[in-house]
Amino acid sequence: MYSILFLCTGNSARSQLAEALFRQAAGDQFQVFSAGTDPDEVDARVYRALKLQGITASDLKSKTVEELSQNYFDYVITLCDKASRECAAYPESQALVHWDLSDPRPESGLRPFLDAVSFLEQKITEFLQLGFSKKPQPEELTVQFFKILSDKTRLRTLMLIEDEKELCVTELVDALDESQPKVSRHLAQLREVGVLEIRRQGQMIFYRLADELPQWCRKVLEVSRIGNPALINQEKIRLKQSNIRSVCCPKESSDAARQLSIC
Q1: Residue 81 CA to chain centroid, in angstroms?
Q2: What is the per-residue pLDDT across 29-65, written as a single tens digit (0 to 9) for each?
């Protein structure tokens, strides 16, 4: 089980909301804590805002950073600039993260707290989808991944494979309009760094994104495709015009056609 600490100045609003919301979203994956550098009483509007989300949090308690000083946290997330300077107290944490969220307490009414809840729910969803990895990734992966994307052929290759789920060398050669040796060389490089893996079917080898590829890498490729459709539009057209799959994998092609007729 991993542990996470939400840190802010008063531990009376933002970090309390984050603790309750994260515990609800993450289930038993994490031990969840919150603390403050100068703690104050929990604002009553915290409970009201959480109740509207269907969360009962009567056990929330304001705590000092010193009370948790002996704990190890895999992740420390600060919610105000003052608290972000306290991250130095947790140098062994796997990740020190800052979410910039204004303090809702000075504002009147419940709306600022509901806005804070919406902000935190979005951040927590992104964290659980992209930022959290049960298997810590080596530091080199981030650098390698963006180096890979700096080459147009490799970028288009990955975008096509992300879009199509898997492709063989010949399909990629036709779609990219590149030579077979060049495409194969790039595919070998992508396999070597762990971005792609293969599936064999008879004499055919299909390339797909590696199962161990972090979710954030997949998201980068997905967003690149959605935000820059022209990058592989012509490649997609050439791929659809190719009949390689039906010639080399007649069974797979007929199975796909049968599925379409069923649909």
Answers
A1: 24
A2: 899 999 998 899 999 999 999 999 999 887 899 999 8
